[in-house]
Amino acid sequence: MLLIHCPYCDETLPELEFAYAGEAHIARPADPSALTDEEWRDFLFIRTNARGKHFERWRHVHGCGRFFNACRDTVSDRFLKTYKAGEERPAETELEGVE
Ligand SMILES: [Zn+2]
Hints:
Layout: E1 3-6, E2 11-14, E3 19-23, H1 37-45, E4 53-59, E5 67-73, E6 78-84, H2 92-95
Antiparallel strand pairs: 1-2, 3-4, 4-5, 5-6
Zinc ion is lined by residues 6, 8-9, 60, 63-64, 66.
């Protein structure tokens, strides 16, 4: 079972407390009506689907209910870091050697 650290509650809890909410750091276009159909499609559906370090959103649904971001290694399925929504993506040096 995965253990996930909620940066708001400052607790590490079982995965069952949380819900995956898609890839992180994808900003909604300021004016969607100005986009082409292909640009809109890309915003809605095209994701990096990275092998290795992947930045994603999670929600602590059975706790504080808040959304936060995480960096998870998709190969080992280990969380490298979790951080509050709105915070900058961690630098690569912050993620090295983290297990
Ligand atoms: Zn929480």
